[in-house]
Amino acid sequence: MSLDTAEKQKLIETHQIHATDTGSVEVQVAMLSKRISKLSSHLQGNIHDFASRQGLLKMIGKRKRLLSYIKEKNVQNYKDLVKKIGIRG
């Protein structure tokens, strides 16, 4: 469940730190969160898609590591990002 170019550009514009920012941790977490939500809805209808389930678990782990990195660096940025994306954190 990949994101199309328009969705990626919209996510980058809403989470970027400066004008040329496309790979900061905040942008990566936003993209992972969007992919996770798409894949979760796919798996609700396709319960025997075990390969996608494994990919989902890897994405969740990566997002968790990135969020812990943000939390170490700046707790306020972490809280703002979690609230902006709408995850529990």
Please characterize this protein's 3D structure:
With 89 residues, the chain is an all-alpha fold. It has one domain (5-82): Helix Hairpins. It has helices at 5-15, 25-45, 50-73, 75-85. It is globular and about 40 Å long. The two termini are 23 Å apart. The mean pLDDT is 92.
The H-and-E topology, N to C, reads as HHHH
Shape: globular
User: Regarding CATH, which class?
Assistant: Mainly Alpha
Give the low-pLDDT segments: none
> Which second-level CATH architecture applies?
Orthogonal Bundle
Largest sheet: none
The assembly state of the depicted protein chains is single chain
Which whole number gives the mean pLDDT?
92
Distance between the termini: 23 Å
What's the total count of β strands?
A: 0
CATH topology: Helix Hairpins
As a whole number of angstroms, the C-alpha radius of gyration is 14 Å
What would you call the structural class?
Answer: mainly alpha
Function: Forms an intersubunit bridge (bridge B4) with the 23S rRNA of the 50S subunit in the ribosome.
Keywords: Ribonucleoprotein, Ribosomal protein, RNA-binding, rRNA-binding
Protein name: Small ribosomal subunit protein uS15
Pfam family, one: Ribosomal_S15
Helices and strands, with pairings:
Layout lengths: L4 H11 L9 H21 L4 H24 L1 H11 L4
Helix pairs in contact: 1-2, 2-3, 3-4
InterPro entries: Ribosomal_uS15, Ribosomal_uS15_bac-type, uS15_NS1_RNA-bd_sf
Family: Belongs to the universal ribosomal protein uS15 family.
Protein name: Small ribosomal subunit protein uS15
